Structures are given as C-alpha cells and as structure tokens.
Amino acid sequence: MAPQGSRAPLEFGGPLGAAALMLLLPATMFHLLLAARSGPARLLDLPPYLPRLEALWSPRALLLWFTWLGLQVAFYLLPARKMAEGQELKDKSRLRYPINGFQALVLTALLVGLGVLVGLPLGALTEMLLPLAFVATLTAFVFSLLLYLKALIAPASALAPGGNSGNPIYDFFLGRELNPRIGSFDFKYFCELRPGLIAWVLINLALLVQEAELRGSPSLAMWLVNGFQLLYVGDALWHEEAVLTTMDITHDGFGFMLAFGDLVWVPFTYSLQAQFLLYHPQPLELPMASALCLMNAVGFYIFRAANSQKNTFRKNPSDPRVADLETIPTATGRQLLVSGWWGMVRHPNYLGDLIMALAWSLPCGVSHLLPYFYLLYFTALLVHREARDEQQCLQKYGLAWHEYCRRVPYRIVPYVY
Ligand SMILES: NC(=O)C1=CN([C@@H]2O[C@H](COP(=O)(O)OP(=O)(O)OC[C@H]3O[C@@H](n4cnc5c(N)ncnc54)[C@H](OP(=O)(O)O)[C@@H]3O)[C@@H](O)[C@H]2O)C=CC1
Ligand SMILES: CC(C)CCC[C@@H](C)[C@H]1CC=C2C3=C(CC[C@@]21C)[C@@]1(C)CC[C@H](O)C(C)(C)[C@@H]1CC3
Question: What is the number of alpha carbons within 13 Å of residue 221 lying toward its C-beta?
C-alpha cells in the first residue's frame, strides 16, 4: 500500500514516459550493439539488420550470466574490511553495508588472469555480447517484477518517496521499495556498482584481447579507452562508501530503471567505444594521445576532488581539509558549501565527469557519431539528474537553497549553464 498523503510528483513523464523508456532503453542498447559491429556504424540510421532469435538466445550466455552474478554475490558475502552505515532512514534507523567492492574487482581480475593462463578464450566473449545482453535484459525484467511483488508486503516505512503512485507501470519502473533486502543482503547496493561496472571493464578487456588476436596488437586508441575507463571503475569501487549518499541509494526505489541501468545498460552501452574500435580501428598519434590523457586527468581531478570535498564535509564539517570553507546554514542543521569546488558551480563533479566522457570518445576519431553516444546520453542524464536533485534540495533546504543558487548561479559549466 502507498503511504497515505505522501504522493510525490510524477517524474520521467509519468506512466506513459516510464512505459516508453522501458521499451526504448533496451531497443537503443540493441541498436548500439548492432551498429557498432556494422560497416557504416551509423548512430542515426535504422538498425543494419534485425537479429534472429537464434542470434539472441543462447543457453551458454544464460549460464555465463548467472555464473557472473553468482560470483559477484559470493565476493559480496566475503568478509569486508569495513562495514559502513547508510544515511538515516524514515524510522531513524541506519542500514549497514559491507565495503568490499574493490576487493571484488581485484578477485575478479585474479580469477580472469588465472583463467587466461590456463587457456580461457577471453576474446571470444566479444562474440557473445548480443546473447549476453539479451539474457541480461530478460533477467532485469524478471528481477524488477520480483522486486515489485516483494514491495507489496513491505511496511510503509520501507517504501521510497517516489515509486508509490499506485500506477503499476510507473511504480514497476521507478521502484517501490527503497532498500530491498533479504537478511543483510542489500539488492540495490549490490547491483549499483559491482556486477555492472566490473562487467564493463571485463568486456573492454575482452575487446582489447580480441583486437590483439585480429591485428597482432591492441591499438593505442583501444589502450586509452581501456585505461581511462578502468581508472573510473577502479575509483568508483575504491570510494564505494560514497555511493551511500547518492540519490540512487537515498531517494530512488529499486525498480526496472536501476535494475536495468546497473546490470545491463552500464556494461553493454558504456563499453561502446571499445566495441566500435574493434570493428573500426582508428589511427591515433602520440601527441594527440598525450593531449587526451591530459584531458582525462583534468576531468578525473575535478570529479574526484569535488566528490571528496563534499563527502569529507558531510562526514565531518570540522575536518581540517574543509573547515576553512565558507558555508550557508540551513534550517535542517546541515550546511551548504559556498566556496571551494561547490562555490564554482552547483555540480562541479558533473563537470569533471563530462570532461572525462569527452576524453573517452575522442580516441575513436571524428568520422562517426556512434562513439559519442555516451557523451550525448550522459549530458542528457546529468542535466535531468541535476534538475531532480535541485527539486529535492529545494524541498530539503528551502530558503537556504535559494540563497545558494543566488551565490552560485551556474549549475554545471561556469558562465554557460
Ligand atoms: N557515470 C554515470 O553514469 C553516472 C555518474 N554519476 C556521478 O555520480 C556522482 C554522484 O552524483 P549524484 O548522486 O547525482 O549527486 P551529487 O554527488 O552531486 O550529490 C548531490 C547532493 O549533494 C549535496 N549538496 C549539493 N550541493 C551541496 C553543497 N553546496 N554543499 C554540500 N552539499 C551539497 C546535496 O545532498 P545533501 O545536502 O543531502 O548531502 C545534494 O542532494 C557524480 O560525480 C556524478 O557525476 C551520476 C550518475 C550517472
Ligand atoms: C538509462 C536509465 C534511464 C537510467 C540508468 C541510470 C544508471 C545507468 C546510472 C544512475 C546512476 C548511476 C551511477 C553510476 C553508474 C550509472 C548509474 C547506475 C556510478 C556507479 C558510476 C561510477 C561513479 O564513480 C559513481 C559516482 C559511483 C556513479 C554513481 C551513480
């Protein structure tokens, strides 16, 4: 049952928008997978061909996918170096989460390395991307249905503010329960980082290995894309605790949007640049490669410094690294930073992330739009996310938020937006 009197305004275009997204997102992903391996590799053309069911359905892919999920569950259940507490919930309690995502990345790397040493054909994974994406999509639908049903028996205090409109399509998409768990196993926290992000870099690596098999050695562009994205994923898992304060964990329910986004969209579309490079090798000279390394480093520096500054401040405002920063008090007792990174624009971390997104696409040259899909999608996602966050902050902080917006007028790009 939805909690009475607490209906949140509908997001994502309501039930119609949610239904459209549930069709459009998988369709877009399959289009990208097919276009990347087609000769013309055109983002805006109709799909080069429609795959037959035999090309999509493979029991081997199903087995591989469930083995992958099982492996990551096993790594999640291993003893963690630290247990972190999440944000305070409606009933004033706090959930505890294991911090062992980076350990899962290292263990996966060791296992895959061992596999390759004994003859595992890692490059062959690139031939299975289509059936893997298909079984992963089916899994995401079934999983979201189970989450929806589980939420029917959850107490009102466990429900998310957004996904309880009473419309089944909308609630299925957005997710009804905030932190669905069985015992201490937290489904949303588990899915947010590990299976999708680690699969992303593993797919990238398989594409690099396949390129080496086809052409004798991996191209410089492929090395760059692999290196940049591995840094991003390694950083996310190293700073795993920070995910506990993102809106995905604190605000959004766990439904199709995040289940599909985390488990399917991330590994199969975020690896698009490496997929494109395998089928469309691009020349890249050393001076250009150095410039792209610099661009990625600048983006990463802004992204990491801004995120760490906010996390340090939220954990302990008197920490010497942030104690001198100027702040605005709010009625909630919390403060808002108005100097340092958060005094430049209201989302400096998004700016850094966008600069990195550009550095990941440029190694693919400028002859095709396809490798720029991530940059285009990500810009739209962050602009929309920024607007959602703004709404939530306005509700939380009221006048203090208005004051912050007056003092820091630009959202993401100084003097532009
Ligand atoms: N690669 C990808 O696909 C994606 C990456 N990201 C990345 O994830 C990271 C996290 O992003 P996201 O969860 O959207 O949001 P943020 O990390 O930007 O967090 C927003 C929250 O920060 C707090 N805040 C805002 N302004 C201030 C301030 N001036 N002083 C102190 N606290 C402030 C508010 O929460 P409160 O006050 O309650 O603490 C606000 O709700 C970003 O780096 C983003 O780029 C995000 C989405 C997708
Ligand atoms: C396509 C759908 C409409 C929306 C799906 C969105 C999801 C793919 C993203 C929502 C927030 C995300 C975050 C990351 C990955 C993408 C999703 C799941 C993130 C884990 C990437 C790595 C970063 O360092 C991070 C800050 C940990 C990110 C957190 C948010």
Answer: 22
DSSP 296-311: HHHHHHHHHHHHHHHH
Q: What is the mean pLDDT of residues 203-221?
A: 96
Ligand closest to the CA atom of residue 196: 2
Share of the chain above pLDDT 90, in %: 85
Whole-angstrom distance, CA of residue 40 vs CA of residue 181: 45
Cα–Cα–Cα angle for 86, 88, 93, nearest 5°? 95
Q: How far, in Å, CA of 177 to CA of 251, rounded? A: 10
Closest of 212, 236, 223 to residue 303, by C-alpha: 236
Sign of CA dihedral 152, 153, 156, 162: negative
Atom of ligand 2 nearest to the CA of 266: 8
Give pLDDT, residue 3: 42
For ligand 1, the distance from its centroid to the CA atom of residue 349, given in whole angstroms, is: 7
* Alpha-carbon separation of residue 174 from 17, 18, 22, 168, 273 (angstroms): 11, 8, 11, 10, 29
pLDDT of residue 2: 40
Domain boundaries defined on the chain: 17-45+53-88+95-281, 285-417
Number of the ligand 2 atom closest to the C-alpha atom of 303: 24
Q: What is the mean pLDDT of residues 201-211?
A: 98
Band (pLDDT 50/70/90 cuts) for residue 48 is low
Q: How far apart are CA 400 and CA 260, in angstroms?
A: 36
Provide the mean pLDDT of the chain. Answer: 93
Report d(CA 165, CA 9) in Å as an integer. 9
